């Protein structure tokens, strides 16, 4: 939370210091002056999906979008506030809220290497809450001085963005009609002395958002945006799956009787028992990720109407 407050403070300082720059520097159109510092507040509707060890497409699991299954895309939403300088660079504070999920059952009927994932028979879902501080770079305004050209700037502006985020997740699955949190069950021996290289993963972590978009000025006071934002994560446990199966007797050693009973049901759900203790459960060499495709609408604050 301290990091989020610091980010918000930096944006405020940037906005206040930039506001002291000369006011109008050219006409936006026949009705509004353009200001060097503009504010923007808006909302977004997003399509959210994830890339994890679960589900995917036929064949051997591959990196990045090659293993993406669109069937588990869900609708998410967000709010944001940004401060821009001469439409070229902007600082944005954004909150995003959604859900990710995947299920090995999506591979039913496939008779290639992916059949092993179907046989593994695992699934998960997790709510996602994220706060991110982002920097936008608009090349068309960085490399072209529109006031000097005495030309009206284009209404469309492609941009790149990157920053740092702080997100929460909580992988879950079901036993019958009961929803079970997976992290407290240490399904792969996280936190057990027998597995010193498997610490209990944290449900609140940093990530690195990065992406690209395009902004369209619908009017002097309204912007529309379309963008895609990918989140680089520092965990392979978004889906509670990463390494190998463990000896189920260890659950009784470290967990309460109720948690141990749930863990024994959920850690190994193979349809046909193939892998045993220390058998392959997931692939730890690649961290998980999630991403969103966003449609945004926002209000522009700071353009001044020309007095006639």
UniProtKB/TrEMBL annotation:
Keywords of this entry: Signal
Superkingdom as given in the UniProt entry: Bacteria
Signal sequence range: 1-23
InterPro entries: OMP/PagP_B-barrel
Protein name: Outer membrane protein beta-barrel domain-containing protein
Gene source species: Ferruginibacter yonginensis
């Amino acid at each position: 939370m301290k990091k989020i407050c610091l980010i918000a403070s930096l944006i405020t300082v940037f906005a206040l210091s930039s506001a002291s720059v000369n006011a109008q520097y050219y006409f936006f159109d026949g009705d509004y002056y353009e200001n060097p510092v503009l504010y923007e507040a808006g909302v977004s509707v997003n399509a959210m999906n994830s890339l994890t060890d679960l589900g995917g497409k036929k064949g051997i699991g591959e990196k990045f979008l090659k293993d993406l299954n669109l069937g588990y895309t869900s609708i998410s939403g967000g709010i944001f506030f940004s401060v821009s300088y001469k439409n070229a660079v902007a600082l944005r504070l954004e909150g995003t809220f959604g859900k990710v999920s995947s299920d090995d059952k999506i591979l039913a009927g496939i008779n290639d290497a992916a059949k092993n994932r179907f046989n593994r028979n695992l699934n998960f879902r997790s709510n996602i809450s994220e706060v991110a501080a982002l920097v936008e770079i608009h090349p068309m305004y960085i490399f072209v001085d529109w006031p000097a050209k005495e030309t009206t700037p284009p209404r469309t502006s492609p941009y790149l963005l990157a920053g740092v985020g702080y997100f929460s997740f909580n992988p879950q699955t079901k036993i019958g009609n009961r929803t079970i949190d997976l992290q407290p069950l240490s399904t792969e021996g996280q936190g057990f002395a027998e597995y010193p290289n498997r610490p209990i993963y944290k449900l609140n972590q940093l990530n690195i958002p990065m992406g690209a978009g395009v902004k369209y000025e619908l009017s002097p006071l309204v912007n529309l945006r379309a963008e895609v934002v990918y989140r680089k994560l520092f965990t392979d446990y978004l889906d509670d799956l990463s390494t190998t199966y463990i000896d189920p007797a260890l659950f009784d050693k470290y967990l309460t009787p109720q948690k141990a009973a749930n863990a024994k049901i959920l850690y190994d759900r193979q349809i046909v028992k193939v892998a045993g203790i220390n058998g392959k459960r997931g692939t730890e060499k690649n961290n998980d990720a999630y991403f969103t495709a966003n449609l945004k609408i926002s209000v522009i604050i700071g353009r001044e109407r020309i007095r006639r």
